[in-house]
Amino acid sequence: MRPWRNGQFTQLSHMAVRISATLWAQVLIAVLAVLVVSITVIAPLPLEEQMLFTAACMTVALILRRKASRLAVLAMIMMSVIASLRYMYWRLTSSLGFEHWLDMAFGYGLVLAELYALLVLLLGYLQTAWPLQRKPYPLPQDQALWPSVDVYIPTYNEPLDIIRLTAFAAQAIDWPKDKLNVYVLDDGRRDEFREFCESAGIGYIIRPDNFHAKAGNLNHALKITKGDYIAIFDADHVPTRSFLQVGMGWFLRDPKLAMLQTPHFFFSPDPFEKNLETFRSVPNEGELFYGLVQDGNDLWNATFFCGSCAIIKRGPLEEVGGIAVETVTEDAHTALKMSRLGYNTAYLALPQAAGLATESLSGHIGQRIRWARGMAQIFRTDNPLLGGGLKFGQRLCYLNAMLHFFYGLPRLVFLTAPLAYLFFGAQIFQASALLIMAYALPHILLASVTNSTIQGRFRHSFWNEVYESVLAWYIMRPVLLAMVNPKLGKFNVTAKGGVIEKGYFDWKMARPYIVVLLLNVIGIVVGLSKLGFAADSDVVATLLINLTWTLYNIIISAASVAVAAEARQVRVEPRVYANLQATLVLSNGKTVVCATHDFSQRGIGITLPDGVDVPQGEQVLVSLLHDQEECAFPALVAFSRGPTLGLSFANLSIEQQRELIRMTFSRANTWAASWGEGVPDTPLGALAEVSTIGLRGLRLLGRATANETLIHLRSLLAQLKASVRST
């Protein structure tokens, strides 16, 4: 060994001193920052100065919003945090001097809900302040260095048409064929599935039981297959050809990477989008999570596995005992286990697969109940704040994900809180109306503007309240029960691919929000009557605050009611809207250059050039073009309306079906092109949007009530007639 020289020791000593000085400087800056924030939070201000503070913060926030740079967003977050902490400090120290038991019951209930909301707000800022925005990492040119991959498609009760689409798309993934194996994991054990897999050259795996549902199904396949990596797709999630090439490079760069997740993107509307007619115009419930939260989690090495559209390294998965079976959210729990062992996770915010959303509101609620119960189970049995292996940022990201599903009770509190004063005269704030406004307004407004700036591409203002209000009543009970006994409840499968032949109003699902809506309407009537007799200015101001809050709750509750009006869905397979180059060969041999406007497995919509007419019933050959490649498919003109044709594919062979999916659903840019490209959020515009939906909800409720009343009257009349005849 070469002896160390004195100069080297001196150099290392100076380096250590510099590192030590840097650390002390960082600690000192952090301490000073905490002191400054603390003083700003607790500093008492007279009413006028507090109002000036509010005006100054809002002015600066609106100026920063126009810039929307990363530093501007961080500055907005800091102002919002200070305003919110000032409000909560004032709330806890100056507004809780309750003397009557009624004031105390309602007052402490509200402040607990506010503390929960504040904690979720702060953790949300931590998650979303600085998204990592990871890009694909290139693979080596030598394909001999690429690993082998097993593609798992678990299924239980989905129709074969859905599985066929996903399986063919999985076979079309651009990867060396000797290193790609596709398996259908059929927990329904159906002969038609086995026959399809045999004819299409796809692996077919079953097991003798259904223990542990999807997790058990995946773990059984894990014991049988041998690929270095596993790509998992739900039965209805269709991967693109580029899925593995886009995601696998990160595994070869980082030997400690255990899991890479991509977004869940849906080519059909969920019940909110379908029933409210907001598909592609308002970001759906899940877009915030996949568009922003997961990207923020990636910064903290805390990406969640979401059960589908992900790649997992076999070694780490086997090391944690396979997919977790202790909870019904086996996916997130599996990622938590791998993180505890020191493995890395990654998120690529680039849609590389697309699936079917839940069709009905009841199905959607059932899915969310399972997620909520599972997260509560993890919180209870494998709490991220406890145990080893996790870094501080990872603990907080997992904590926020689990706390999110506890919103049921706080949301119901916010929807009914002003009624405590309007109905019973309960003083839930022991402070003057002006002082409440002075502290609450900066907290509410700065949080709204800041979140709108951060989330604007993936969540519009006020829609979160609608989503939570619809689900609050239903997830509250399973979450609380899971905290008491994590073993309560069972895994429920989310049905996909159904139809709704006739629109109807789902009274059963809507009942809780109708009750909340009626209570708030009565509250408005009571409040206005009290306002008419109020003489004291403080009473008037208090009434106006509670009436405004109640009016907002009516808007949110009415919008929630509108979601329960189920719209018709007559297509088993939703169409994907896309403009693709095509040619049409007519029965007379003439070729027409045209374009598609939508497609599905069963058919395709064509837009013809001016002057071309093709009659209904004609046999044609439609060719799709992509990257100098052309594939032709026989079809029948199902309908012809001017320049628009609807073609139905005719008896496609297995190979033609495979080629059709490769040329349509499997295109690399099919889903990514529309990701995060919606209309950016503006809070006032979003409020108008939700208010319009609320008015629609009131109309729908009135119409449904009239129809139900008419049905009951007819039934009663029929009974009376029958009674008269019998006598």
UniProtKB/TrEMBL annotation:
<keyword id="KW-1133">Transmembrane helix</keyword>
<comment type="pathway">
    <text>Glycan metabolism; bacterial cellulose biosynthesis.</text>
</comment>
<feature type="transmembrane region" description="Helical">
    <location>
        <begin position="401"/>
        <end position="422"/>
    </location>
</feature>
<dbReference type="GO" id="GO:0030244">
    <property type="term" value="P:cellulose biosynthetic process"/>
</dbReference>
<feature type="transmembrane region" description="Helical">
    <location>
        <begin position="71"/>
        <end position="90"/>
    </location>
</feature>
<dbReference type="InterPro" id="IPR050321">
    <property type="entry name" value="Glycosyltr_2/OpgH_subfam"/>
</dbReference>
<keyword id="KW-0328">Glycosyltransferase</keyword>
<feature type="transmembrane region" description="Helical">
    <location>
        <begin position="105"/>
        <end position="126"/>
    </location>
</feature>
<keyword id="KW-0812">Transmembrane</keyword>
<keyword id="KW-0808">Transferase</keyword>
<dbReference type="GO" id="GO:0006011">
    <property type="term" value="P:UDP-alpha-D-glucose metabolic process"/>
</dbReference>
<keyword id="KW-0135">Cellulose biosynthesis</keyword>
<feature type="domain" description="PilZ">
    <location>
        <begin position="569"/>
        <end position="665"/>
    </location>
</feature>
<dbReference type="InterPro" id="IPR029044">
    <property type="entry name" value="Nucleotide-diphossugar_trans"/>
</dbReference>
<feature type="transmembrane region" description="Helical">
    <location>
        <begin position="512"/>
        <end position="533"/>
    </location>
</feature>
<feature type="domain" description="Glycosyltransferase 2-like">
    <location>
        <begin position="151"/>
        <end position="320"/>
    </location>
</feature>
<feature type="transmembrane region" description="Helical">
    <location>
        <begin position="428"/>
        <end position="449"/>
    </location>
</feature>
<dbReference type="GO" id="GO:0035438">
    <property type="term" value="F:cyclic-di-GMP binding"/>
</dbReference>
<comment type="function">
    <text>Catalytic subunit of cellulose synthase. It polymerizes uridine 5'-diphosphate glucose to cellulose.</text>
</comment>
<keyword id="KW-0973">c-di-GMP</keyword>
<keyword id="KW-1003">Cell membrane</keyword>
<feature type="transmembrane region" description="Helical">
    <location>
        <begin position="539"/>
        <end position="565"/>
    </location>
</feature>
<keyword id="KW-0472">Membrane</keyword>
<dbReference type="GO" id="GO:0005886">
    <property type="term" value="C:plasma membrane"/>
</dbReference>
<dbReference type="Pfam" id="PF07238">
    <property type="entry name" value="PilZ"/>
</dbReference>
<protein>
    <recommendedName>
        <fullName>Cellulose synthase catalytic subunit [UDP-forming]</fullName>
        <ecNumber>2.4.1.12</ecNumber>
    </recommendedName>
</protein>
<comment type="similarity">
    <text>Belongs to the glycosyltransferase 2 family.</text>
</comment>
<feature type="transmembrane region" description="Helical">
    <location>
        <begin position="21"/>
        <end position="43"/>
    </location>
</feature>
<dbReference type="InterPro" id="IPR009875">
    <property type="entry name" value="PilZ_domain"/>
</dbReference>
<dbReference type="InterPro" id="IPR003919">
    <property type="entry name" value="Cell_synth_A"/>
</dbReference>
<dbReference type="InterPro" id="IPR001173">
    <property type="entry name" value="Glyco_trans_2-like"/>
</dbReference>
<dbReference type="GO" id="GO:0016760">
    <property type="term" value="F:cellulose synthase (UDP-forming) activity"/>
</dbReference>
<feature type="transmembrane region" description="Helical">
    <location>
        <begin position="49"/>
        <end position="64"/>
    </location>
</feature>
<keyword id="KW-0997">Cell inner membrane</keyword>
<dbReference type="Pfam" id="PF00535">
    <property type="entry name" value="Glycos_transf_2"/>
</dbReference>
